[in-house]
Amino acid sequence: MKKHFRKQRAVAAAVCAMLAAFAGCQKAPRPGAEEAKRELATPKSADLPKTSTPASTASDQRRDRQTTPFRSSEDFASNAAKLREEALLHLEPTVLRPIDARPPSAGRYPWRKAIVTNVFAIGEKLPGKGKAARQASAWNPNWEMDFGGYDDPDPTARRNSISVKFQPQQNPFYIALPYNDVTGGTTKPEARVVIPWFSQTFEREGESVCQDRWVEVRNGHGKSCYAQWSDCGPARTDHFQYVFGSERPKANAIKGAGLSVSPAVRDFLGLADVDVTEWRFVEFRDIPTGPWSKWGNNNPFVQMKYARPDREVGPAPVPARVTR
Fold it and tell me: pTM of this prediction?
């Protein structure tokens, strides 16, 4: 009985193969007598997969060639992988960049190199103006009073970057550059365009966005000092093409100086009264601690030191009486 069933299955397989070849789905020769004998002698376990796979496989391949635009299975797999990657890109969340995540100072602000630099001091006598002294800055009419007194540049009257007569109430590390962004109580028109940080720091018309901005000054040996922009000069207050651009300082009576530094900066860098340095603007977050971080109610380092949870900055030290 079992031999009879095996014979029927072998005959059925041969018939299916013939029909498939006739339909053009499989190019296979008609099995001969010897092949039929081998089919009859084949065990039952080998008979099962041969009853349907030859014809169905050939027809599936022909149908695939007729309905797909791909030349091969490799082309199909490559295209599927590409579609998957595109879908994943659309599913990724959008990353929002914080508004204060600005680039670091390095690379953002270029160095102004080989700049003639002179020394100036709060409260010093102004050349050619009799007894008149530098009591006010371009932005602070009470600069000397708020500072606490005369910032005597005499090295014998100084110790640890400051005067021996009083402790300064503002940062003794200060500089001046030849541009003022305000005039007559209004903001200059070009300020909105030429100052890189204007849009992030502007609060109201006529209020400077340059006052107390930090700069890095470097001497000829590569030593750096950090200071705050506290006045305008030397010689002029309108040269934005140099301060924020690529021009060189204009000629003036101080050998073409384009930067003025305080006695504290001079002492730290070992400068002469007229010397050559290089400088650039720098973001506060990029400034290391140093002697420039110790004094002054206008100094962010000091403000953070005295900060309280319930107020933005700590109490400012009471200005000392002006000492001459």
Answer: 0.65
